[in-house]
Amino acid sequence: MRIALWTVTRGAGNIGKEYAEKLIQKLENAEIDVFTLKKFGVEGTIQIDDFTKEITEKFNKYEGHIFIMASGIVIRKISTLLKSKDIDPAVLLIDEGKHFVVSLLSGHLGGANELTQEVAEILNLIPIITTSSDITGKIAVDSISQKLNSELDNLKSAKEVTSLIVDGKKVNILLPTNVGFAKDNNVNSDGLILISNRKKIEITRICPKNIILGIGCKKDTKVEDILDAIENSLNKHNLDIKAVKHIATVDIKENEVGLLKAAKFLELELKVISREEIKKVEHLFEGSDFVEENIGVRAVSEPVALLSSSQKGKFIEMKSKHNGITVSIYEEDNIDL
């Protein structure tokens, strides 16, 4: 997780440097940049001239922000930078007296509440979390979505269902059979029959990110053709694009412009698998002499989908062909709460 730690006083700058050293040692996969004002000369930090300018430019470049300053300053500086709870980064606040750490923004989807608990434990601070679902010991819909590494279909409906949970109303969770409980339910289906005597029922959908697309294509394939192939493949199996975890391809295609543009347009990571790795599993799939002659392996879309996955799941589509483009669809089943 990339975290920016911001300060605007000499004392806070020294605290920030101290705290960053402790957090980097304890927080898993954390990268922390400490920002201090240049006039204080705090060594080992990123020294800046203009706090407002820097936070405006860098707010969306970090997954989390920790401010060691007054809450009023923080609120005024970030208020115009906020977009939506599903994309805003986590924002934490620590007082310069080294007493409290406050989860200020994006508590659930941004991970601020969880980060607050971790920071409090590492730095021996008192955590302040104010979201009603957390302080009442209940779980919010967006927290469930985050734990499933999934995407909320509708923020409004998620809010309405969470309000029912907080209010003590009964809310049922229908999950796929591989999620470890409610094993008699499988919602990866085309229809759902809900039996209830309630006239009004709030329903929201969580879309698990457990679909991997393996893609092979000819040189100079247009981005529009790749996007059409992806759309057609997903529509064929009634799959939501929101469920796609990433796209995968072979190393020889890592600079293929059409693929790179497609991944960027869909806001998905393009994972590149080496031909050496593919050779280890290509015997599991139907191969092509022509493909082997051209790039050195007998198959692309199926092995890259498999190798870039958890390898715990199944193929929904082994390989579909679309005018020189091949698409394979792999569904992971290791969704855990």
Order of helices and strands: EHEEHEHEEHEHHEHEEHEHEHHHEE
Strand content: 15-25%
Termini, distance in Å? 21 Å
CATH class of the largest domain: Alpha Beta
Would you kindly provide a written description of the structure presented here, covering whatever features stand out?
By secondary structure, this protein is α/β, with parallel strands linked by helices. It folds into three domains: 2-130, Rossmann fold, CATH 3.40.50; 141-207, no CATH class; 209-332, CobE/GbiG C-terminal domain (Nucleotidyltransferase, domain 5). The chain is built from twelve helices and 14 strands. The chain has helices at residues 10-26, 51-58, 71-78, 112-123, 132-135, 141-147, 155-166, 223-236, 257-266, 275-281, 289-295, 301-307, and strands at 2-7, 31-37, 46-48, 64-68, 90-94, 100-105, 126-128, 150-152, 206-208, 211-217, 244-250, 270-273, 313-322, 325-332. The strands form three sheets. It has a seven-stranded mixed sheet, covered by helices on one side. α3 (71-78) links the parallel β4 (64-68) and β5 (90-94). The radius of gyration is 24 Å and the shape is globular.
